[in-house]
Amino acid sequence: MAQQFEQAVTVHLLTNITQDDDTEQFDFDLPGRLVIVNDNIYLRYVEDDNGQSTPVTFKLNGEDDVVLTRSGENGLKFHFLTGKAVTTQYRTPYGIMAVEVATTDLSVRLSDDLSAGRIAIDYQLLAGEQLIGDYQIRLHFTA
Predict the structure, then answer these.
(1) How much is the pTM?
(2) pLDDT tens-digit map of 74-100
(3) Which class does domain 4-142 fall in?
(4) Is 121 exposed, middle or buried (0-12, 13-18, 19+ CB in 10 A)?
């Protein structure tokens, strides 16, 4: 891979959130950027949440290692590792909360020329021993 590479992509993001037997689904098509710096692959886009722009970055560290960073009021940095739980902090309007991200399934597929890719992540979010919810991220990007 090149030391530095950047291209415009279209991101299709589908997220399912299940909490207390209620499921919400969010479906977005957004402009984004695929960036490679020193062999690190980043997918970046900005979500518009009720008029507030939230920068989002996926760092792809391989087929079973992804870091999701969301900036803004509800900032977070989730590290997804297949079959593992990682403790992190989640910034909310009410303060910082320690949470555990337990990745149950993770798949990253990239085309050889990086013109397209798919990321699928299933995980549980826990606060202490209490389940906050089950989450599914399905992301597809194309140049």
Answers:
(1) 0.90
(2) 788 999 999 999 999 888 778 888 899
(3) mainly beta
(4) buried
